[in-house]
Amino acid sequence: MTRLDKLDERADVAPASAESLAAAMRSALADVERPPPPRPLSTSLTFGWRALLKIKHVPEQLFDVTVFPVMFTLLFTFLFGGAIAGSVGGYLQYVLPGLLVQGVIMITMYTGSTLRTDIDRGVFDRFRSLPIWRPSALVGMLLGDAVRYTISATVTIALGLALGYRPEGGVPGVLMAVLLILVFAFSFSWLWTFFALVLRTPGAVMGVSMLVITPLTFASNIFIEPSTLPNWLQAFVEVNPVSHLVTAVRDFMGGMDASGELSITLLWCAGLVAIFGPLTMIRYRTAG
Amino acid sequence: MTDLAIETHALVKTFKKTVAVDGIDLAIPRGGVHGFLGPNGAGKTTTIRMLATLTRPDSGTARVLGRDVVTDANEVRRRVSLTGQFASVDEDLTGAENLRLIGRLFGYTGARATRRSDELLTAFGLSDARDKQVKKYSGGMRRRIDIAASIVVTPELLFLDEPTTGLDPRSRNEVWDIIRAMVSSGTTVLLTTQYLDEADQLADRISVIDAGKVIAEGTSSELKAKVGNGALHVRVMNPADRPRASEVLNRILGVEIRDQADPAALSATVADPGIVTSALTALAAEKIELAQFSLGQPSLDEVFLALTGHTSESTSDEEVAA
Q1: pTM recorded for the entire structure
Q2: B108 contacts B116 by C-beta, under 8 angstroms
Q3: What ipTM was assigned to the predicted interfaces of this complex?
């Protein structure tokens, strides 16, 4: 309290007098202009701008998108390289597209706990009280997250290139792969927004996210060829949307035809948004 | 079209097993300040959340500025604004960024939103703190930016939920000045408070809410009149004399004499102020020395006690805000 009081003094923000305040207030309130209602895209982008401002003010939140990809890439490449592929260099060629996917999917889970924190602080109640397209606060948040995902992907690819990874698909293949990962992450995140509105604390949201992400990323074809797995696990890996995404990403980056896996992945994306988008919005509308 | 700012019929909201709002009827005219007075958990916040379209009523109807809060929610949202324990600004952003964000969301262009933000920061005495993150603001500054954020587009009706809870007296006076200034420029304000003096100071009319129901309504003078004509306050010089003084007063006045927290103080509500002189004489005859003997209007605290059977400070139920 005393510290804050000092801050108040220093900033010298006390209004000069009740009369001058009233005058300033009257002139501010006299402005009764009502701008035309903004479009959904415009409000979504405005919320995206808010997410970028938060990154600017709290740059620590970029820690996970820069340090994690480096750690995962080094750890998994050198840990499994010899055992799985016989050499680190050979394994890197196989695993890097998968690590790219894993890195982004891991950090999508922050979306849920960030949203929960916002709700707990009361920020979303103000947004919900505004006359705007309701999903725009969430869509904007996810658009802002795309910036974080792009940073994560860039770090992973740069490190991969430094370690000797060579994408046969060239720049267009890599760009397509990253774009697909962003689309998938956006769609997949509606799962987390839903959990954030159902569960009560950021910690609980985080816990559930781990529970979902761990099997989805490890029981996939990110690290290994599924043919080495027991049948039941192979069956799971084959339906796991992450496996389809990884295969598509691998095909794009390896310069191969990715169209088959691309359509399956996009179907999963559409399905995730179609189910968890409305579920999230129902919770969002009736929350409280 | 109706002249009422707020009109509700039998509004009910239940959370799990707790009935937060239990059939509230309101008819609040436009203009001025209407106060919702009640302890924590009385249902004030839940009622405001329903009126501001954040929470759906389980039953009953509510019209705000003539528009239904459920079927015409977006039209309500365009005309009202809220500030309170909930509906805060983003602490990670600066004051200026918060106001620009809200301006943009209302449809202002970037330049227009910046201009509006500057104008409000000046009006609220926050120009020097414009580029500071809101989490670094003091309590009073924080409340001012919260209120500024709710008038980026001038609302017809402003909900203020406990705007001065937790503020020091100087900041509280600043917020009161802001509220008076807003009212003088024509905004209708619905204010919730647990502070009786706040309702007394600001509100033209007051609804006293307890356990999800409106238990009394009127101007502060009308509410006081309901309780009795006068409040008698007595302080004895020596606290040991208090029980004897209480006995004497009870005998003469024939009403309940209440012990105050101050060990030397007593209070009573008297219907006929004329009888008070004989009480004074009787105390003198008993040789009880007095430090204070005064007759005044009852405080809203006493009104609340008389209406609900408990003081405004006691928490009747846990706060149901979620």
Answers
A1: 0.82
A2: yes
A3: 0.83
